[in-house]
Amino acid sequence: MEEESPYRSGFVGLVGRPNVGKSTLLNNLMHRKLAIISEKPQTTRNKIRCVLTREDAQIVFVDTPGFHKPKNALGERLNKAVRETLEEVDAVVFILDGTQTIGKGDLFIAGELAELETPVVAVLNKIDRLTRDQLEAQTAVASKLGEFADLIPLSAKTGENVHALIERVVELLPEGPKYYPEDMVTDQPVTFIVAEIIREKVLQLTREEIPHSVAVAVEEMERREDKDLVYIEAVIYVERESQKGIIIGKGGRMLKDIGSRARAEIEPLLGERVFLQLKVAVEKDWAKRPQMVRRLGY
């Protein structure tokens, strides 16, 4: 009689410098959108826990802010969140952008990971944009960054080889119980995901006009039985009056566009009709003020 394999479970940190594709990979691993995506650096600000449950294992992925040289209180707090995550997890997935030169930022993170006893799987992302020769060259460079449990080339965008990463991670996890119920996919409240979707639309639509210092807070979210919808009121915080004008736009058009695009993603998330009320408020230099950084949930 064949012996049954032990159930494995544990926490896995996703790390990498900004814009290497951590959030795209997380969404692909989970087969749903749980982390926002933007070309702007420092898009991910919170440790987002996502739970992948299988018959033989439960993996709790922890998406972290991109490691970077901090310039303000927000940056310091983001780096602290990454270091705390690395100390808590059972394995680490170190993501590298295969289309970029592996440089100082990657070396900095590799140095941090070298201090850990935790197994590290290096991932060379965006292979869908590489030729075979480029892939071989980048793999050779990446392998010299440290002592990795494995080095896996994949595409978070297309899903190519993502399954191989999952299988390798499961092998590295210890025997353990299910930490979360089978139907749970994230430990973040719905209000957090709603706020993140709104912030993503701001980043996407304002492009270079608005720096990364934009935050969103959901002030009210309630189901209104009389109107058969969910009423959501959210505030978009910026640092200067000029930024407020850009987000509102001429005749309120930009704010309306942000709202309609966000609502189109929030409604399927909640499975109900949504009335989304957006406001814009100025909190001068909030990213430089530790008290405001904490107040806004970072």
Strand arrangement within the widest β-sheet reads 2-3-1-4-5-6
What series of H and E elements makes up the topology? Answer: EHEEHEHEHEHHEEHHEH
Number of domains: 2
Largest sheet: 6 strands, mixed
User: Any idea what the shape is?
Assistant: globular
Structural class: alpha/beta
**Quaternary structure type:** single chain
- CATH architectural name of the largest domain: 3-Layer(aba) Sandwich
How does this model look, in words?
This protein is α/β, with parallel strands linked by helices and 298 residues long. It has 2 domains: 8-172, P-loop containing nucleotide triphosphate hydrolases (Rossmann fold, 3-Layer(aba) Sandwich); 190-295, 2-Layer Sandwich (GMP Synthetase, Chain A, domain 3), CATH 3.30.300.20. Mean pLDDT is 86; it is low at 36-45. Strand 2 (48-53) and strand 3 form a beta hairpin. The protein is built from 9 helices and 9 strands. It has a 6-stranded mixed beta sheet with strand order 2-3-1-4-5-6, with helices on both faces. It starts with 7 loop residues before the first strand and ends with a helix. 36% of the residues lie in helices and 22% in strands. Helix 6 packs antiparallel against helix 8 (253-270).
Summary, kept brief:
It contains nine helices and nine strands. With 298 residues, the chain is an alpha/beta fold. The chain has two domains: 8-172, P-loop containing nucleotide triphosphate hydrolases (Rossmann fold, 3-Layer(aba) Sandwich); 190-295, 2-Layer Sandwich (GMP Synthetase, Chain A, domain 3).
